[in-house]
Amino acid sequence: MTTTNRRIVQFTVNGNSVEVAITPRQTLLEVVRDELGLTGAKEGCSNGNCGSCTIEVDGVTINSCCALGVEMDGREVNTIEGLAPGNDLHPIQKAYMNNGGFQCGICTPGFILSTDHLLKMIPNPTEEEIRLHLAGNLCRCTGYDKIVRSVQAAAEDMNS
Amino acid sequence: MVATPEKAIGQPIARVDAVERVKGRAVYAPDLTLPGTLHCKILRSPHAHARIKSIDTSAAEEYPGVKAVVTHKDLPALDSDEQVGGEVTLDAVYLRQFLMASDRVLFHGHPVAAVAATSPHIAEEALDLIKVDYEPLPAVVGIEDAIKDDAPIIHEEVRTRGLEGRSDKPTNISVHMELARGDVAKGYEEADVVLEGEYRIGMVHQGYIEPQACTVDVDATGHITIYTTTQASFANKSQNAALLQVPLNKVTVVPLEIGGGFGGKGFTVPELPTALLALKTGAPVKTVLSRDEVFRATGPAPDAYCWIKAGANKKGEVTAFEARFYLDAGCLPGSALYVNNILVAGLSPYKLPNFQADGYDVLTNKSRSQAYRAPGLPEGAFAIETMMDELAEALDMDPIDLRIANITDDGAPMSDGMALPVTRFKEILETVKKHDSWTSPVPEGRGRGVAIGMRREGSGTSTATIQLNADATFSLIVGSVDLTGTRTSMAQIAAEELGVTVDEVRSTVGDTDSVGYSDGSWGSRITYVTGMAVKNASEDVIRQLKERAAEGFQASAEDVEYADRTFTLRDNPEQSITLAELAPKCVGMGLGAVIGTGIAAGVRPVTSTGVQICEVEVDESTGRATIARYTAFQDPGRAINPMAVEGQVQGAVAQGVGWALWENYEWGEDGILKNANFLDYRMPTALDLPMIETIFVGGPAPENPLGVRGVGEVPIIPPLPAVGNAVSRTTGIRHREIPLNPENVFWATHNGANGAK
Amino acid sequence: MRNFDYVAPTSLTEAVQAFGQAGDKARALAGGTDIIDQIRIGRRTPELLIDTKRVPEMMVFEGDGAGGLRIGAALPLYRVRDDANVQATYPALATASGLVGAVQIQNRATLGGNVGNAAPSGDTIPPLVVLGSTVVIAGPRGTREEPVENIFAGPGQMTIAPDECLVEFRVPAPKANSSSYYVRFIPRAEMDIAVVGVGVSLTLNGGGQIEDVNISLASVAPTPVRATDAENVLRGETLTAALAREAGEQAEHHASPISDVRGSADYRRELTKVLTRRAVAACAAQLGVNVT
Ligand SMILES: Cc1cc2nc3c(=O)[nH]c(=O)nc-3n(C[C@H](O)[C@H](O)[C@H](O)COP(=O)(O)OP(=O)(O)OC[C@H]3O[C@@H](n4cnc5c(N)ncnc54)[C@H](O)[C@@H]3O)c2cc1C
Ligand code: FES
Ligand code: FES
Predict the structure, then answer these.
(1) Final residue of a domain: which of B575, B600, B625?
(2) Nearest Cα to B578, choosing from B558, B564, B595?
(3) How far apart are CA C33 and CA C27, in angstroms?
């Protein structure tokens, strides 16, 4: 069973319908990165612990390293590349930029998608709610202080 | 935010490369896949120490999809004396042995062979087909075991450097260093209190989220191009040229965006096996390490065992001080520089009129240990700063007052006899003492701890070039990799020096062919040394532009002045030309292109200092310590970008707190690492930390025209003792072991410090 | 990762067939937060993964008609965590569902997976047990219902046959004047596996005495265990701080933990006492009885 059981899977990615021929063992993360060339989601650990592979599936964020590509048939997948069209910036992206919400930036796509999910659930989160909701995303550079402030700034901006 | 020209420096502006990052478009090493790329996986030792009797790769070679397999046999012959440089200098033979085992494996996870195949999955399957016959050997895991007389010896040929003539026995102590001053015996006589303690600090990983990854592409002429994640593209180039035995002009290193390094990406790791496979197959080969491999085999920070005995008089002055610091080098000699850091930067904040300090580089069956921010200093500071707190407690003295009583005056000799650069340490401590984080009453149930840190920095060389474009904008290239916003701060310096806005300077990091030699992004040297190179390059541009303007004025360049984007003849202000007018004349219209070059080398060392105050709560029923409040005072000199400086301080504090409370390599007796993943190697999450208040103290460094000091490293020095002192003051028991994870604190409070389980 | 096949049945009949045919060569794939990494590191080696998420019977989330609750084995935990009825009626289960991993994990992980993984540390298991839940099991020999408590055979192992699968959990309506509570200890504040976990359900009688109590411990034995000695000292009594402490001491009898990277056996024993005491007190506090 090396590459014999490749199959065609259809789903939407950032609003566009895609069709990929993949094997079951390819994770969703491998599929978006290697098959679709969307490398915004990163692989920091491959076992659900760092959140750098965070992707939205059917409206909720998941660790795409712990999901299979073949599971996506008919589902709606959104990645960091689709958060704002073209060269536009989503208010969350602006907030991370203007508040020092990242340094090396490897964790940033994951944090931004987690923030988006949080603000959809709780438009005005407390600091505690922010920290709890982002606990599945590790950042080694910032100590989280400026990430929390970025989320607060984004919430303020989006609620005004 | 657009900064005005005069004010580019000192503005908290967003990163110039921010958009690419928040859009997920920035290209990191794992993101690059060249057409026709083969994928490499590495076979690793399941033993901590074993002899390799044989390796049979034939079945793997025949596996469908496999294009090549390499082992140490594919390495070219190497001159045994060759040295390779990075932040430390290593013997090339040892570095190569670390990257690809030959006759023995020296740690769990040691690379033994590598496979290139058409997909990573196939390469991984092929690893199972490689047969390695091992003869397990006794492994030495802990420092204290490794220094015993009857310890199994890791390298038979090693003799202790620094003890020449005194011993010619094979040993696991590869280096011994010592510094001393005054008369320790007399010092004890002057002491009113004498204390002694042993301190143990666990092994931790830098924890960058991006694993090591690279693609190596060899062209038809044999030229090797390495796309990689590195803190030091030029060092990476020279290391790989030496290991592969090719001339330096046959290797180009293209540094891609780097997803964190913190000292851990200064030495080449996956490039060697990847390059061997690329040379063998003629195709580009890509390697991306797994998190497990990153933990096991890239180079964590040394664990340490320290002993201190100190005496102080009633005024709190330390009259006698003896210390021994043992750092774990892992399987290769190499932590000597970090030992030296402790003996010099670690001890020099204090006068210590009578001291004897010894440092040791100890070999064990672990991955080679590596730099982590201020290498060696967090470990050393845990011992030193805990002892200072113990003395303060014994003397019933305010711990900040005790430090003030001992602090070395600027210009006075450091532990190595050199003069201490300007630190204003006493003033800084006086300021901290008056701050609310220290003066406010300690809330019920909490304890408060303080610790200081110092680092001396500013070594090596950096290069920058600046090109003038025809529309009067500029293109700046530096050779220092951008870890935390280098492009931005360098653009700020160039903009200020060139009298333009940051937007008008395109700031990039060059590959090793497009810019001059630059040392790595380590040792807090970038803002300072590379900043000086950028300043020099900017001055060179202005000088050339003045020459071009002078040609038009038919005057001498010395008489031309530059201000407000305009070149003016000093004695005849009618004669003037704007930058916008002059630029197209230079570029494209024949006056001559303007390319400024800046080199910085031999800059005067500066110090960088910090003080941190930590407040904890401890749940004594479970042993869990929680950080309730954290304040970091940092002297950044002149902060080029205050937002970036704050961010670096906060990041370092978070790492230090993680080290203090949770992070630790958990070893089995057999030298097997048991927690090589982010679940059981517990780095702090957002929920584990409070906001980290960052306060700038001190002022511009007089040693350099930019006035800057490094900030990347110092703030990771105080957290271990600051947290430890806070926990000790809460539980009423002196904790001398890191990590202070719940179980360790629980047993210490229930069975006494260092209590048995 | 070694290769395997994948099917996604769209009805229980299809699912039962798939499990029945493949037997021990197959494993269910629910949220994948355990199984995918286990395949990656070679701990499990199924030849076929059967995706349970498209089976409507495994996605139910509704009342059982008798005041209780039905939760499909493949329903993501965030649905349980965020449900107002679960929060009010089965607080231990809502809490535990919000403790598994972090948000992204809860958006995928399931009760079927937490139980199916059969880790002694599974956080939702003690709540399911103390709430008296049962699980519906389907297979080629038909459908049956078992108490959740009875389905663990050892670490990573259930008592169900390899050709069977979990369909849904049934949580009965709680008695009047009762509540439930779950607490676990982890070194970090999130993203960690329980060093010890304690689930408690309590029912008080009209006089304020403990009429019924269930206590289940996680991470202290090869399977989740009931702390019956602790239950026995509590039953029929009026809770006091001393009694809660005594319950903790008694609970420790049921702990036969191992030492591993997450904690030593001795530490786990100590934590069992502390957490049981705290869980009993906190559960009572939810019923208005404060003993601390
Ligand atoms: C980062 C991280 C943190 C975690 N933290 C926690 C934690 O705090 N607490 C905790 O308890 N767990 C934790 N886990 C483990 C895991 O998330 C949980 O066990 C989760 O509930 C598993 O659910 P799943 O749906 O993802 O299971 P899957 O991985 O899909 O399946 C798990 C097992 O159950 C079997 N299974 C699933 N459904 C059925 C069924 N219908 N019938 C029969 N067998 C079935 C599968 O075959 C498999 O063996 C964590 C995991 C990760 C990666
Ligand atoms: S890569 Fe998926 S969580 Fe780390
Ligand atoms: S910015 Fe580097 S890990 Fe978050």
Answers:
(1) B600
(2) B564
(3) 13
Per CATH, which fold does C178-286 belong to? Enolase-like; domain 1 (3.30.390)
Q: Best mutation site among C1, C34, C39, C110 for ligand 1, i.e. most ligand atoms within 8 A of its Cβ?
A: C34
pLDDT band per the 50, 70, 90 thresholds, residue B85:
confident
Please compute the mean of the pLDDT values over residues A87-114 and round it to a whole number.
Answer: 97
Of A78, A143, A74, nearest in space to A112 by CA: A78
Residue B569 domain flag = yes
| Predicted confidence band of residue B527 (pLDDT cuts 50, 70, 90) | confident
Is B189 a domain residue?
no
Q: Which residue has the higher pLDDT, B590 or B688?
A: B688
Say yes or no for a CB contact (<8 Å) between C263 and B679. no
Q: Where are the domains of chain A?
A: 7-82, 91-159
Identify the CATH homologous superfamily for domain A7-82.
Answer: Beta-grasp domain (3.10.20.30)
What's the CA gap between B321 and C97, in Å, rounded? 54
Instruction: List pLDDT tens digits, range B439-469.
Output: 999 999 999 999 999 998 767 899 999 999 9
What domain range includes position B75? Answer: 32-137+210-259+265-297
C1 touches chain B (CB under 8 A): yes
3-state secondary structure of C54: coil
Domain A91-159, CATH among 3.40.225.10, 2.60.410.10, 3.40.190.10, 1.10.150.120:
1.10.150.120
How many domains does chain B divide into?
3
Strand partners of residue B330: B363
Same domain, B224 and B336: no
The crossing angle, in degrees rounded to 10, of helices B92-99 and B233-244 is 90
Please check whether residues B464 and B324 belong to one and the same domain: no
> Ligand 1 within 6 A of C70 CB?
no
Residues B700 and A70 sit within 8 Å (Cβ to Cβ): no
Q: How far apart are CA B678 and CA A46, in angstroms?
A: 10
pLDDT digits (tens, 9 = 90+) for B373-428: 999 999 999 999 999 999 999 999 999 999 999 999 999 999 999 999 999 999 99
Q: Which ligand is nearest to the CA of C106?
A: 1
Domain C5-171 has CATH 3.30.465.10: yes
Residue B340: what residue type?
N
φ and ψ at residue B569, rounded to 5 degrees: -80, 125
Interface confidence, given as ipTM, is 0.97
CB B205 within 8 A of CB B665: yes
Neighbour subunits, B (≥3 Cβ pairs < 8 A)? A, C
Residue nearest to atom 3 of ligand 2 (CA): A48
Q: How many residues does chain C have?
A: 292
**Residues of chain B positioned with their CB less than 8 A from the CB of C193:** 679
| Mean pLDDT (whole number) for C150-161 | 97
- Within 8 A by CB and 6+ apart from B449, the residues are B389, B613, B614, B615, B616, B721, B722, B723, B724, B725, B726, B727, B728, B729
The Cα B513–Cα B490 span in angstroms is 20
Q: Which residue of C has its CA nearest to A136?
A: C102
Instruction: Tell me the shortest Cα–Cα distance from A33 to chain B, in angstroms.
Output: 8
What is the value of pTM for the model shown?
0.96
Secondary structure of residue B603 in the 3-state scheme: coil
Tell the residue nearest (CA) to atom 4 of ligand 3: A139
Q: Tell me the pLDDT band of C104, cut-offs 50, 70 and 90.
A: very high
Query: Would you say residue B4 has pLDDT above 50?
Result: no
Residue of C nearest to A138 (CA): C191
3-state per-residue secondary structure call for B659-705: HHHCCCCCECCCCCECCCCCCCCCCCCHHHCCCEEEEECCCCCCCCC
- Which of B121, B680, B687 lies at the smallest CB-CB distance from C261? B680
pLDDT at B754 over 50: no
Indicate the DSSP class of residue C36. H
Tell the residue number behind the tokens 């019920």, with chain if given: B444
Q: pLDDT class for B752, splitting at 50, 70, 90?
A: low
